[in-house]
UniProtKB/TrEMBL annotation:
It comes from Youngiibacter fragilis 232.1. This is Amidohydrolase. Residues 187-272 form the Peptidase M20 dimerisation domain. GO terms for molecular function: dipeptidase activity; para-aminobenzoyl-glutamate hydrolase activity. One of its GO terms (cellular component) is cytoplasm. Keywords: Hydrolase.
């Protein structure tokens, strides 16, 4: 069995994969509620001959891994399946149209992520069976990516122990392996306690917790000029008191700090905490705070980037039908034209007759492509050599978390991009099994980049 056979095997299973992706799309479950989606994958993988391993912690009830094979390499494919609240959208629709007003929807295409990893896993298993080679494939069911902490919690409980390397897929508007990107971040909450009193009769007896929140925010806002310009600090006030005529005894805020490197996030986090302490000091109130979560940026691995790049070229995308092209055109034309033009430049695809990217992004552009969201896949990249595969499932210029990305994720347009990614994962697995030096080099590079230091959870 060679790579062409592996691609053919996945083509033969395309209907099965497309219907799984569609069924997840039709029953979206938001983070921490992925009961049906995780059960579906457990059942399907069991039917395909995988052994299911569950975790015993309550916070990992929708996480698991399914394993097949023996010995090394142990390759993890990371599946996700959570949807987003309020982004319900009819799949394949050319206009914004909720299936259920205010309901959840797969606007980040995680229905495709889980199914892509499932496709990669069954193809890898097929190869191990046919070839009799040594090697292990694991499908990881990873919940609550949208809360940016599913894999962070999994890592805290050593869920990834025993793996040599991990691959993950994300739907996008272009075909490229991710070299670098995603912002490291911290998620924290501040709570101030003061003294309540009548705001008209006895304000002098009160100590306003809301004043503390406002002064702390002011401190952070003037600090913005003195942090690296690529940092992002956002907050909301989650409690500002009960009524204007009562000096607020309790007040609270919720902050995210993001930056390209975890070390910057740690530094800025400390300064944000100092601003909060200052707010408490100035107002004679007390402060409690908690860092609720956080994640890392992607640690590049050039060996795996090159391995993925070769497989993008070797594996072929399925051709699109006229109907799929029309959908891509309609979705792309619903975007601001500048956004599409800019993205064509980013991905190096200029054919204005096509609204779905048909090229593989040139290496020099892929290596600098900037992704300014955050993801818990970053943490996995600091645990072992890691590769993120992005393929064109959405028309050019479409961003994640939009009705357009949801529409495409619930159609064959998105599913074909997903199938291409499954083939790339299967091809990469084939190469690792047959050329052990690739993994050795990837591990050497990983060791160099991490300085041999073990991963430190942002949660501790
Ligand atoms: Zn998302
Ligand atoms: Zn996502």
């Amino acid at each position: 069995m060679n790579k062409v056979d592996l691609a053919q095997y996945l083509d033969q299973h395309a209907d099965e994969l497309f219907s799984i992706a569609q069924s997840l799309f039709d029953e979206p479950e938001v983070s921490r509620e992925e009961e049906k989606s995780s059960s579906k994958f457990k059942r399907l993988l069991k039917e395909h001959g995988f052994t299911i391993h569950e975790f015993h912690q309550e916070e990992l009830k929708y996480a698991f891994y399914a394993e097949y094979g023996q010995g090394h390499p142990v390759v993890a494919l990371l599946g996700e399946y959570d949807a987003l609240p309020g982004l319900s959208q009819e799949g394949g629709s050319k206009e914004k149209k909720a299936v259920q007003s205010g309901g959840a929807g797969h606007a980040c295409g995680h229905n495709l992520i889980g199914t892509c990893a499932f496709g990669g896993a069954i193809a890898a298993k097929k190869y191990l069976e046919e070839s009799g080679q040594e090697g292990t494939i694991r499908f990881y069911g990873c919940p609550q990516e949208e809360l940016l902490d599913g894999k962070v919690i999994m890592a805290k409980h050593h869920a990834f122990d025993g793996c040599d390397t991990a691959f993950s897929f994300h739907p996008w508007d272009a075909n490229f392996p991710v070299y670098q990107g995603f912002l490291a971040m911290n998620n924290m909450r501040f709570h101030f306690t003061g003294v309540s009193s009548h705001a008209g009769q006895a304000p002098e007896q009160g100590r306003s917790a809301l004043d503390a929140v406002e002064l702390a925010n002011m401190g952070v806002n003037v600090m913005r000029e003195h942090v690296i310009s690529s940092a992002r600090i956002h907050y909301i006030i989650t409690n500002g008191g009960e009524a204007p005529n009562i000096v607020p005894k309790e007040a609270a805020s919720w902050y995210y700090v993001r930056a390209p490197h975890r070390s910057d996030v740690n530094d800025i986090t400390n300064r944000v905490i100092n601003c909060q302490k200052g707010g408490a000091l100035m107002t004679d109130t007390s402060l409690d705070y908690k860092i609720e979560g956080g994640c890392y940026e992607i640690l590049p691995n050039e060996v795996l980037f090159d391995l993925a790049s070769r497989n993008y070229e070797e594996m072929k995308m399925s051709p699109y039908s006229d109907e799929e092209r029309e959908l891509a055109k309609a979705l792309s034309q619903s975007l601001p034209p500048d956004q599409v033009v800019k993205e064509r430049e980013n991905i190096g695809f200029y054919d204005e007759n096509d609204f779905i990217s048909l090229n593989v992004v040139p290496k020099e552009k892929a290596m600098v492509y900037s992704i300014t969201g955050s993801s818990d896949i970053g943490d996995v990249s600091w645990i072992m050599p890691f590769s993120a595969i992005f393929t064109a499932t959405w028309p050019i210029g479409v961003n994640a978390h939009t009705w357009q990305s949801a529409s495409a994720s619930g159609s064959t347009l998105g599913q074909k991009g997903m199938l291409y990614a499954s083939k790339i994962m299967a091809g990469m697995f084939f190469d690792l099994v047959n050329h052990s030096e690739i993994l050795s080099k990837a591990k050497e590079e990983f060791k160099k980049r991490t300085d041999g230091k073990p991963y430190q959870s942002p949660l501790m």
